[in-house]
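Re: the 117-residue chain
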Amino acid sequence: MTNSDLKEEQQKICEKYQSPVFFCGEEEKLGIALKSLTKGPIYGVRRARKDDTCGWYLWAGEFSDSEDFFSPMHVGHISEILPIAQKYLALAPGFKFIIDKNGYEDVWYEPESNGSE
C-alpha cells in the first residue's frame, strides 16, 4: 500500500468514527506488545503525543501492566509487524479500538484513556 493510499484509508476511518485526523510520522514511536501479537483480538489505545511518541499503544490478548509489556517501535515498521492496525493510527488521542483478523471492528472514544482496558 502506498503512503497516499494509507493516508486516504486512515482519513476514511476518522470520518467513519467522527475523529479529527492525527497522522503519525513514520519516525514517531508507539508502544507495542510484541510478545502478545500471536494472540487475539488486537487492541489499540491512543494517548496524547509526548516527546517523540505518537501516543499509540498496541497489544493482543490480555493487557499487562508489567513495565516490559510494551516495546518502543517506529510507526514506519507497523506495516511489517501489524499491518491490520495501520488504518486506525490517525484516530485522535482518546480513541480505542478492538479488531481481529476475521473483520471484527469496534472503535470508540474515551477522553481519559490510561492505556489499559
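Confidence is low (pLDDT under 50) at residues 113-117.
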